[in-house]
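Translate structure to sequence.
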C-alpha cells in the first residue's frame, strides 16, 4: 500500500511521503486523507462474522466453524482450541466487539443460562461465583418464570438470590411476543 500511494518500495526510496501513515485514516477536516482505517475495518468484518455465528447458526459457515471449534458451547465463550486456523484466531480476536454489543432479550428464556450471560437489564450478568450459584448452575432463565405465563416468579427469585440481584432480575423486561 505504501508503494501504491507514495510511489516507492522497500529497496528504492523514490517518491515523497506527503502524509504520515497515522494521519491517513483521519477525516479531511482534521488534516487527514479520509482513508478507511484498515485495521479497524478488518476487526469490524471479523466481528460481523462472529455475530453471524450467533444470529445465523444454521448457515453453512456457522455450522462448519461450530463443528470444528465450539461444538458444545457458544461462540461467545468458546476456547481457541487445538490447532486453530488463522481465520478462527482472527474471529476470536474480534469477539470482544460482539460481546460488547450483544444483549439478550428474554422471550421464552429457554436458551439463556442464568449464570455468566448478559441477560439482565443494561447488559449485566449474574456471576457464577455468587453464593447461591450452585442452586441455578445448570438452569436456564425460563426456570425463573411462572409456568407458561410471561411473569417473573418473584417468590422464587427472592428466595434464591440476594436482594440486589433479585431486584435486577425483577426489573429486567420480558418480551411479550415470541
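Result:
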Amino acid at each position: 500500500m505504501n508503494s501504491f500511494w507514495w510511489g516507492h518500495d522497500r529497496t528504492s526510496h523514490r517518491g515523497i511521503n506527503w502524509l504520515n501513515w497515522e494521519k491517513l485514516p483521519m477525516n479531511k477536516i482534521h488534516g487527514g486523507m479520509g482513508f478507511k482505517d484498515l485495521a479497524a475495518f478488518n476487526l469490524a468484518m471479523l466481528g460481523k462474522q462472529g455475530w453471524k455465528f450467533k444470529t445465523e447458526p444454521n448457515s453453512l459457515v456457522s455450522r462448519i466453524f461450530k463443528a470444528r471449534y465450539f461444538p458444545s458451547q457458544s461462540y461467545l465463550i468458546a476456547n481457541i482450541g487445538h490447532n486453530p486456523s488463522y481465520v478462527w484466531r482472527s474471529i476470536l480476536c474480534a469477539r470482544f466487539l460482539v460481546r460488547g454489543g450483544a444483549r439478550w432479550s428474554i422471550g421464552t428464556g429457554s436458551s439463556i443460562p442464568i449464570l455468566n450471560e448478559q441477560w439482565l437489564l443494561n447488559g449485566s450478568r449474574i456471576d457464577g461465583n455468587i453464593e447461591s450459584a450452585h442452586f441455578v448452575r445448570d438452569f436456564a432463565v425460563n426456570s425463573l418464570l411462572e409456568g407458561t405465563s410471561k411473569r417473573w416468579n418473584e417468590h422464587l427469585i427472592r428466595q434464591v438470590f440476594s436482594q440486589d440481584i433479585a431486584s435486577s432480575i425483577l426489573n429486567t423486561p420480558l418480551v411479550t411476543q415470541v
